[in-house]
Amino acid sequence: MSFTLDNTRMTDRALEIADRVENFVRETIAPYEKDPRKTSHGPTDALANEMKAKAREAGVLTPHILEGGDHLTHLETAAVLIRSGLSPLGPVACNVAAPDEGNMYLLGKEASPELKERFLDPMVRGEMRSAFFMTEPADDGGAGSDPMMMQTTCKMDGNHWVINGRKTYITGAEGAGLGIVMAKSDDGACMFLVDLPDPAIRIERVMDTIDSSMPGGHAVISIDNLRVPASQMLGQSGEGFHYAQVRLSPARLTHCMRWLGACIRANEIASDYANRRMAFGKPLVDHEGVGFMLAENLIDLKQAELMIYWCADILDTGVLGTAESSMTKVAVSEALMRVADRCVQVMGGQGVTQDTIVEQVFREIRAFRIYDGPTEVHKWSLAKKIKRDWRKANEA
């Protein structure tokens, strides 16, 4: 089932790219879902590189970034990334997976021409992975959803910055060629582009987590006297939170796009099962308890899609869209959790096996409700906005 918004501002170029991406993911990448190189810490780099080579050959590698460096609009990107998510391996194959997609967006917006050539260009070509070093261990009192708690420090020493601290849940750190590291100076938060591997950055361990779609898994990191040239700071000292928001608002939205695609596919699988499986003299779909769950899935999928396009439209106006991306992250992640749960329930015992991707999609969506900000943090942020807006209106 194809889910594309009927919107007169959706361009022909985006729909053409989206169609090619969908065909590639369904026909070429979906068969890889049984590949043994698809591990509990994500697809191996060997598998990822093999799939990227096929995407390059098919002309769908990094499809949201056009020749010459132009970027599709957020609205256009939605059409493409939703289709890429039709397999959990699709975003990796097409080079639109987290954290690389968000990091490419940030560098495209904010990096100098020299830093773009050094770091962004090989990422766009699918030759380099990246990691975003922001979250810190709770047992160190470090930054999680509250970045003001950041404990990692950076101090100037000659023409270098020296960084010390620990990070956690760093997706893709193992095997990455670029690290975007956040640290705190006397001026405030700072952001650095760091060549990886570096002996000053040590992977303590790669955690075993519920999700398994992203290469490199999620690592705990120690940073011990890392020296970074001043030229590799993004912007100026103290501007790190601004750059983080430039990245995070669109990144929340693109997460929603990819996982909507995955849930569309899971619902296709569950619907097929319900129409083929007989029970008590008729197909499962004819039992209201099952048929109604699939009907509710269609409603949640369509509402999630509309929220994504609504938020993308706002971001395309140039507004940072923090509140809108928070609303979308909450609404979409919660809706997709309901969809994934119903797919498992419809398929019964088959739904909890790895015979199909339904089981994996359920796990991935459960993690999605937490990363890029848990539902409760976004609700709290929106509640604070309600209070600010009320005060502003009543002080006028």
TrEMBL record:
InterPro entries associated with the record: Acyl-CoA_dehydrogenase (IPR050741), Acyl-CoA_Oxase/DH_mid-dom (IPR006091), Acyl-CoA_Oxase/DH_mid-dom_sf (IPR046373), AcylCo_DH-like_C (IPR036250), AcylCo_DH/oxidase_C (IPR009075), AcylCoA_DH/ox_N (IPR013786), AcylCoA_DH/ox_N_sf (IPR037069), AcylCoA_DH/oxidase_NM_dom_sf (IPR009100)
Assigned EC number: 1.3.1.108
Keywords carried by this UniProt record: FAD, Flavoprotein, Oxidoreductase, Plasmid
GO cellular component, one term: cytoplasm
Domain of life: Bacteria
Pfam family, one: Acyl-CoA_dh_N
Cofactors (names): FAD
Residue intervals of the Acyl-CoA oxidase/dehydrogenase middle domain: 131-208
Enzyme class: oxidoreductase
Record domain Acyl-CoA dehydrogenase/oxidase N-terminal: where: 12-127
Subunit comment: Homodimer.
Family: Belongs to the acyl-CoA dehydrogenase family.
Protein name: Caffeyl-CoA reductase-Etf complex subunit CarC
Originating organism: Pseudosulfitobacter pseudonitzschiae
